Amino acid sequence: MVSAERPLRVGVVGYGGAGRGIHARLVREAGHVVTAVVVRSPERRAAAAEDWPGVHLHDDLTALVADRDSYDVVVVASPTALHAEHAAALAQAGVPTVVDKPLALDTASARGVVEAAQAAGTPLTVFQNRRWDPEQLTLRHVLQQGDLGTVHTFERRWERWRPVPQQRWKENDPVGGGLLLDLGPHLVDSATQLFGPVTSVWAELRSLTTPTEDDVFLVLHHAPDATGNAVVSRLWAGSVVGAPGPRTRVLGSAGAYVVTTFENDASPFEVFDDAAPAGSEGWVTHGRERVAVERAPGGHADFYRAVAAWLLDGGPVPVDPRDAVRTAEVLDAARRSDAEGRRIDV
């Protein structure tokens, strides 16, 4: 039973780039502790033991489930193709679960995981940590203030200059790899969180240097809001981009919000920020006129603070898993759009 008088105890399935490099790091930053890990690699087992003295190490999910008293929640950070299988098994075992994005490879599998959790009464959420990006938090504030007027276009780019691909499953797995499943869930979730449900999708997907797609372009048409305004989102993800950016551009009737660079990635647009004051995040612009925007407070570790509040205090679920099902619907439509060369209704 979870007690508010001790840190949340977290089990992690997988201890690689996601499990160790992202989840375990944020768990620690949020003041919680990793107490169990599913990992087979001798090197990664040693890393987990060094990072978390006394951690319980397991070879598979069955052993982790049997060790139920050692954790309060489990994070599924295994390769994407295993997410649905692992999450469904944990749901059926009654283990509160955080699943790294994407929840599953497709809509049917994602919906199946959510239904399994609902049937078992098991708490389930999805790691859409980019909702806690400074640019996303700041943009939400800008929109709430009405600084842009009526927004008509949202653009976001997640672009890298990586002409020689990394040799890992994300680049080479034809089932679970590729940028559509890796970065697409973040891009789509950001757009729908800000501008609501998607009614149709146009997509172009290419594989330039890897067996899976490493060049992605999506156009999302959002449902009209209460005033009848319908935003169009244009989203890019690419690995062979020698001039990344601008990262975010939101266009409205009263101006634009622009974020030029992202997480210190090299970009020719970084000169735009030479004059940016400390503590700012992007600019509200009108042609050549620009005003720096104060950065909204928050960060990725707030996701795990929200997980603790959810499980400890009955707070709201950090990310409704049904949002992940809707994201899967958009990504499935993107694949159809690319294959058929037409706009697909969602």
Can you put this structure into words, describing what you see?
The protein is of the alpha/beta class and 346 residues long. The chain is 34% helix and 24% strand. It is built from eleven helices and 15 strands. The chain has helices spanning 19-29, 42-51, 61-66, 83-92, 107-120, 134-145, 169-172, 179-182, 184-195, 301-313, 321-340; strands at 9-13, 33-38, 56-58, 73-76, 97-100, 124-127, 151-159, 198-206, 215-222, 232-238, 248-252, 255-259, 280-286, 289-294, 344-345. The strands form two sheets. It has a nine-stranded mixed β-sheet. Strands 3-2-1-4-5-6 form a six-stranded parallel β-sheet, with helices on both faces. Strand 1 (9-13), helix 1 and strand 2 (33-38) form a beta-alpha-beta unit. The longest helix is centred in the C-terminal third of the chain and has 20 residues, at 321-340. The chain is globular and about 60 Å long. 45% of the residues are buried. The model has no long low-confidence stretch (mean pLDDT 95).
Strand-helix topology:
Elements: E1 9-13, H1 19-29, E2 33-38, H2 42-51, E3 56-58, H3 61-66, E4 73-76, H4 83-92, E5 97-100, H5 107-120, E6 124-127, H6 134-145, E7 151-159, H7 169-172, H8 179-182, H9 184-195, E8 198-206, E9 215-222, E10 232-238, E11 248-252, E12 255-259, E13 280-286, E14 289-294, H10 301-313, H11 321-340, E15 344-345
Parallel strand pairs: 1-2, 1-4, 2-3, 4-5, 5-6, 7-10
Antiparallel strand pairs: 7-11, 8-9, 8-15, 9-10, 11-12, 12-13, 13-14
Helix pairs in contact: 4-5, 5-11, 9-11
